[in-house]
Design a protein that fits this description.
Elements lengths: L1 H16 L2 H21 L2 H4 L3 H25 L4 H6 L1 H6 L5 H35 L3 H31 L3 H30 L6 H9 L2 H10 L3 H7 L2 H6 L4 H25 L3
Helix pairs in contact: 1-7, 2-4, 2-7, 4-7, 4-8, 4-9, 4-11, 4-12, 7-8, 7-14, 8-9, 8-11, 8-14, 11-14
Length: about 280
């Protein structure tokens, strides 16, 4: 485990040196603060907690932004090192290949987690300081921040899987962008088309639940927009929440599975890949 932590620490240092940590934190903080105060401006008239509004707004932002940052961090983590010749040097030390993958993964997740917690936490703290504490909304906000880190971890793991499958960085970058488009945009549009064509004949609540669990972005959206009554009502997701057959614990486990399965596949593939 010490070897894994040393590799992870190296990735964090590289992220600091390359300004990835600063850039990601600043980007998330700027968007979060903007959405928090612009979105919370009219809430006094409708008696809605500003934090609840911010959870809805930031959940929509996170689905687009965090997966993209995660894939940009990770798509060349393996293939880029091989192209530069540094991977062969690293493997000359007494280190297992799975330790390399796991250590680099933990380093990148640490970078993304730090940026998310600080960036979103600044917006939450500012809202609480201005509008006061709403315990239910604060818990929903904390859950949103934690699940954002999980979502980022899922896409970092997918980036590692891509990075172990291809032979050059350009191909890895193209596939990474394709994955982002698939999970963030294309999947939901295709699912909507299927539901319209089906008209409720075959796809019931159970089938709908499984279809949504096949997309980590949809799991994240459901976990945050249906997790609490206040946020669910404001987001207009109460009806869908009643039809789903998966609770928050199941959705969180499914999001964790989106981390474990691609990462395990990346470790297995890298273990057989010539360097």
């Amino acid at each position: 485990m010490r070897t894994v932590l040393i590799i992870a620490a190296k990735e964090v240092r590289d992220g600091l040196r390359n300004r990835w940590v600063l850039a990601a934190t600043a980007l998330l903080a700027i968007f979060a603060l903007t959405l928090a105060f612009l979105g919370a401006a009219p809430t006094g008239a409708v008696k809605v907690s500003p934090l609840a509004v911010t959870v809805v707004s930031l959940s929509s932002l996170t689905i687009f932004l965090v997966p993209l940052i995660a894939l940009l961090l990770s798509y060349d983590a393996i293939v880029g090192e091989i192209d530069r010749g540094t991977m062969a040097l690293l493997l000359a030390y007494p280190v297992a290949r799975w330790q390399v993958v796991l250590g680099k993964f933990l380093g990148h997740v640490t970078i993304l987690g730090f940026a998310t917690v600080i960036g979103y936490g600044a917006a939450g703290a500012a809202l609480i300081a201005v509008h006061g504490m709403d315990p239910e909304a604060a818990r929903a906000f904390a859950d949103m921040v934690g699940s954002s880190v999980l979502l980022g971890g899922a896409f970092v793991a997918l980036g590692y899987l891509v990075s172990t499958l291809v032979r050059d960085r350009g191909t890895a970058g193209g596939i990474a962008i394709g994955l982002w488009l698939l999970f963030v945009l294309v999947y939901d549009m295709a699912l909507l088309g299927v539901l319209v064509a089906d008209q409720g004949r075959f796809i019931d609540g159970s089938a709908m639940t499984w279809l949504l669990l096949l997309n980590p972005a949809d799991i994240y959206r459901l976990l945050n927009l249906t997790g609490t009554a206040g946020v669910s009502a404001f987001a207009g997701m109460s009806g869908l929440a009643d039809q789903l057959e998966a609770g928050p614990a199941v959705m969180a486990a499914a999001l964790a599975a989106w981390i474990v399965v691609p990462l395990a596949a990346a470790m297995a593939l890298f273990g057989r890949r010539p360097v």
